[in-house]
Predict the 3D structure of the following.
Amino acid sequence: MTELLHMRDNYAKEFDAVVESIGDDYVVLNRTTFYPEGGGQSTDFGKLSDGVRTVDVTEVRKIEGTIRHKLDGSPFDVGTEVHGEIDWSRRYECMRFHTCQHVLSRYLQLNYDVVTVGNMIKPGESRADYTPLQSFDEDMKRKVEVGVNEILDQNIDIEIRFMPRGDAIAFLNQRGYQTRYLEMVPESVQDFRVMIIGDFDVASCAGTHVKNTSEIGHIQIGKSKNVGAGKRRIYFKLTD
Ligand SMILES: [Zn+2]
């Protein structure tokens, strides 16, 4: 099992690790701070070096229970000590987008009673799907943009807490959040990671987040489209 350093520290940019196993074009490490694609957030890029050779990491994914770092070059031998470094500007942008999506989703839930049913977090422009949401006209778009930016401007601290399964579900329940999906997480998972945006939002999430909403900047909502079954996809960008 690869120790996921980014679960405890979203700001870790470099790390040392040992190669535990390899494939034709990938290595599995004993520890990593590379975020594997998942939960709607796209993969980290970066590089690994053994002190002699530096190889680009072009994709990180969890496959068959292991975290594979796909390399643009031949893999290091098993047992090699490597130094890893993530592409921080890309990751930090994902962190800003991802945290902004939490704020947008909560804002839409509170004001329009819609739930988030999908997302795609990546640099440049991200998106999320909401239901039931048939239309999203210019007036509503403007209101949401203003409302979300007012929240972001409150410079709210974002806290990450680890809780035993039962405590996490109770914590969310007490605050009125839906925990149906959490209860579906396999019983083997006992340690839950809970993200708290001040008094505004709480979610169980393994993604990467910034420490304060002031880091996000401002949201700029772009186009939206129906994607079937009462679902609407909203695209958004970030500005300073
Ligand atoms: Zn999250």
Remarks:
- The radius of gyration is 19 Å.
- Residues 129 and 233 are 4 Å apart (CA to CA).
